[in-house]
Structure formats: structure tokens, C-alpha cells
Amino acid sequence: MRVTKKLISLGLVTSMVLSLAACGGGNDSNNETQEGDSSSSSVPTIDQIKVGEDYKDLEASIKILTNRTDIVDTVYKGYAEEFMELYPNIKVKYEALTDYEESLKLRLTTGDWGDLCFIPTSVQKDQLSDYFVPLGDFDTLDKIYNFCQEKTYDGTVYGIANGGTAGGIVYNKRVWKEAGIDELPATPDEFLEDLQTIKDNTDAIPLYTNFAAGWPMGAWDAYIGVAATGDPDFMNDIVHIKNPFAKRDDMTGPYAVYYTMYEAVARKLVEDDPASSDWESSKGMINKGEIATMVLGSWAVQQCKDAGETPDDVGYMPFPITVDGKRYAGSGGNYAFGINKQATEDNQIAAMLYMKWLIEESSIYEDEGSIPALKDKELPDALADFKGVELLPNNPAKEGEETLFDEVNNESEVGINNDDYPECELLEAALYGSKTLDEMMDERNQKWSDAQEALGVEVWEE
Fold this sequence. Notes:
alpha+beta, D-Maltodextrin-Binding Protein, domain 2, 2 domains, four-stranded mixed beta sheet, 17 helices, 33% helix
């Protein structure tokens, strides 16, 4: 699919991260958790519900958790109020968490975590049915919603993404222009040269890592698949590939992504003290031109635009890797909504009504500049600089290998898309010169090989 202002026509999936909403525990009598599985055949699938027509007499009180502390009492409260005008007997309340993943990980096993949440990345596909209500079968829902593959197991969908994101780099267009850069970079070395030009000719921080927040470091993992290889099967095949982190002669693949980050830090093209970086303030800084670039998903563009008085200066460029003369961008879902399997039946239905209204009828995707969940909606304006770039989702895992990536990833402790620490280690090695990039990648390859051997995985020469 070419990235132009047109309708989305395919399901998109990957990982990353972050404009979240989630679930909370406790409400009145309707929110008492039950022993065992309280979902039943009387709870409809999401495609069977007609919002605004069905369950108008349903009484329930549901809570949704979110990490969006910045807008929970404004924008998200507004969504809830709008929905409650349509369903006055359903009360919707948000609560914001500053450490969403860790908090949900602790609550999830108790069953007493509320009604609707974004499914934490720690939940593997074969665990989805332990915690979440089935939303419908994949063949049906994949025709309606983008990103369904990510939270599907054994043909059943347990989560629908809150829109999606394309992989690229947030940048300040005015800073790049003032530095004298007229053409966006297409390779890692071109990008690094441009960062040096920005450092030499402006007062802006060329690349802001947001190291202190942790999760922006792990976000680099999202670029090692489609963006770095042009292959929508790479993230499935990587479990079989021998030494997938090795350097390629054409500077593509995972090594090229980590090279870009390592070299930017080693060449001092980042903030002076990454440990004191601040995520919330960085959004205003890039809006004002104090920061030139940040490597984040397209979900971040609108937040950066909203953080200051010069929103038109904020743009989004493709990640600088070219594969056989072509540019690619990976695309995938944000966190996926999941409904608590242990909630009461009334609360499960109420949560499904709110979820369907939010992803189909609210203004959430226009407000956040995300790729919509519905396939028949338009791409966001934030992707204007992606002309000529092919936007691809990761393909679903092969039959019989649905959990193999998670198994190898966890066994190896490489932590792709579920652990920020390896990328934090990479930055520290570059910052202090404690290890070369090749040494770091050799260690990852060894860990990956050990996991492949321990799990009896067939290994291919790439």
C-alpha cells in the first residue's frame, strides 16, 4: 500500500507503543468479580452489537485505566461523557496510571482489575484466553478492523487495537530547513550526517533519546522488521535465522537500526545527559525547535503538535533505511483493548459497547493522529512525508508457530518489543565506550542461538 491520503485496505500489525487506555477495578454492585470464567455465550461478539440500538436499558458502571495522565481529565473524560449521553445507564470512569505496564502485570492475575484494559505486552498469545473475553473469530473481524492478528490465538480475537501507528521519526521541519537540509535521509549514514549538520548549524539537540523514560529506548525494536528488511515475514522468520543481528553488507536489517542509535550516541549527537531526559517536556521542546528528532511511532506526532504554539513545524519522516532501492515502513496496532474475563456479564457487555463506540464512532483517531482501527477510514495527515514508501504490516505467524517468537525471545532474554533494558544497555555502551556495537550484537546473536538450541528450533542460513 502506498502511503497517500487513501483508504486503508489491509490489516496492520506490530508492536509498539503508546497512546493508551485501559481498565480499572471496582465499581458498584455490577463490578463484583466472580470466581471462574464469567463470560458466557450470552455475551455477543463485537460484530453482533449495534451501538446506540442494543442494550439501551443495560445498567452498569465500568472503569478504564489509561497512562495518558495529560488528558485523562479532559479529552478522555469528554469521550466518556459523550458515550453516557447515548447510554445514560452505563457509567464510565477513567483512572490514569503513570506505570501502566507494571501495574497491569500485577493486577491481571487477580482478576480484580476492572472491566476494560489495554492488553499488556507481557501477555503471550496462548495466555489471552486466560484473561480476556473472546471478541469474535478472526476471519470475521479481520474484514472489519485493522491489526487483528496481534491479539488472535487459535482463530479467536481477544483484543482490538486502539488504532495504529507507522514506524518513523518525529522531526522539527523548521530546524532541518534552517540547518540547510533539503532532502530527507534514506540511509543510516545519511541520517547521521544530517544530525551532525544540525549540531553544527543550529542550537537544537539533533536526536533526543528520552533514555530516562525507558520505553522510548525499547521502541527502537519496532524498526528491525519491515522498515529494515522490507519483509513482512521477517519477524516470523527471525526465530529460525542464524545470527539475525549480524551486520549486512547493504546496511539493512536489525544491525542497521541499532547502528543508527549507537553511532548517534557515540558521536554525541544526542542530549548531553540522557539520564536526566524527560518525556513530557520533550514534546514541547521538539515543538519549539529545541529538539530536531525523536525516534517514535506516528502516534507521537499529534502529542508533539499539541505541546506548543508551532504545530505545523512538527513532521514525521520514514526511518532511514533503503532496501534494494525501495523504502518501507512497518505499521501495526497500538495497545489492544481487552475485556476482563472475570467481570460480570453486564459489565462485559457494557465494556464492549464502549469499546465499539470508541473505536468506530468517537473522534479518538482524529484527535491522536493514529491509523484508525476500522479498515474503511482514512490514513492520518501525519504520514504526508511517506509518499513513495510502502507501508506493510507484519504477517501473522505460520500455523503451529503462533507462540514461537515469544518463546525464543523470552528464552534468549534479548527482549525484542517487550523489554527496554537491552537498548538502554546499548546506549550506555555507546555513551561510555564500554563495548563496541559489534560486541553487543555478537552477544545478542549468541543468546539467540542458545535459545534456538534449547528450544530445538530449526535454524536457517539467511
